[in-house]
Every structure is written in structure tokens, then in C-alpha cells.
Amino acid sequence: MPVTDLDSQVGEKLLHDPGDLETFATELEQATSPLPRRVNADPEGVERGLAKLVLTLIELLRQLMERQALRRIEAGSLDDEEIERLGQTFMKLDARMEELKLIFGLEDEVLNLSLGPLGDLM
Q: What would the pLDDT profile of 3-16 be if each residue is shown by its tens digit?
């Protein structure tokens, strides 16, 4: 097959029925910009959202630390004084978390994270 025949076949395939380019361009624009074009700069919303994020991370870390403390208690690697200190620390942290949730108007359900196959955080 001469090269000119191959070129014409490739050209036909590339230019064959390009479809609705307007629809393609719209879909491409939506696919490349999943974020809104404008940022919601409401100060109260931003503050509440940031508080939600921080408190969720603190709750996640608190639960991880609590589980680790329980493992150490069960393994017998902590003495009574250390266990008492850990208990006091977790109670103070829990009380402070409740205060902060009240200040920002957040409920436990709002701070919950889906951890996929592990289940929910709370």
C-alpha cells in the first residue's frame, strides 16, 4: 500500500464524524474543574468548618491514644500512677472537647468520619 493511501485512511479516521464538539468541550470543562469557581468566604462558615476539621482530627487522635493506653494497661506495662494520670488526661480532654463543640455548635455526628472498611470514627 502506497504511503499516500495510508495517509488518506488515517486522515479519514481522524476526521470521521467528530461529533458534537460543543458538548465535548462542556464535559471537558466540568471534568477538569470539579471545584466551584467562587470560594465561599463567609467568615462564620470558614471558622466553623476549620473548627470541625480540627476537632475531628483531635477526636481521631484521642481515640487512637485511648486504644493504645488500653493495650498498655492490659499488657501490664503501666503502673497504677501512670494509669491514673492517663485517666485524668483523657477526662480533661473529653471535657474540653465538649466545651469546644458547644462553642462552635457542633455535634458528635458532624465530627464523624467514615473510615471505609474500618467503619465510622464514632
A: 555 555 544 554 44
